[in-house]
Amino acid sequence: MPRGSKAKYTEKQKDQAESIERSYERKGVPQSEAEARAWATVNKQSGGGNRSGGSGQEKSKQAKAQSRSSSAKRAAASRQGIPRSDSLERETKDELMKKARSRNIPGRSTMRKQELIQALKKAS
């Protein structure tokens, strides 16, 4: 018998698994094997149980607009070829680290965010 609770599955998914299971049983597959195959099929088709949260959460209209605006500003700055200091300040440490890596700045792995900004300004 398959492991795990089926509580997070929708009724539609449960009905689908039951239908698939009956189909396998009519073909002579043992009940436990039919159930396992049925749930494997449902998982493959729908990605598993209906889970709340996760990456499916939608951004608010305001958050989307802010992301677009910030992306457009960064794109405009990069088209000019001059990294603006305030644009570097708004980037995360990981983003700064990637830029430092691409410019092969020595000692970047031990630098703090402000040190990375200074090193990137010097390198450009």
TrEMBL record:
Sequence ranges of Low complexity compositional bias: 63-80
Task: Provide ranges: composition bias, Basic and acidic residues.
Answer: 8-28, 86-98
Region (Disordered), start-end ranges: 1-124
One Pfam match: Rho_N
Please provide the Gene Ontology terms (biological process) for this protein.
DNA-templated transcription termination
Q: Which InterPro entries match?
A: Rho-like_N, Rho_N_sf
- Show where the Rho termination factor-like N-terminal domain sits: 88-123
For bias type Gly residues, the affected ranges are 46-56
User: What is the recorded name of this protein?
Assistant: Termination factor Rho
Record the organism: Halopseudomonas laoshanensis
Lineage here is:
Bacteria, Pseudomonadati, Pseudomonadota, Gammaproteobacteria, Pseudomonadales
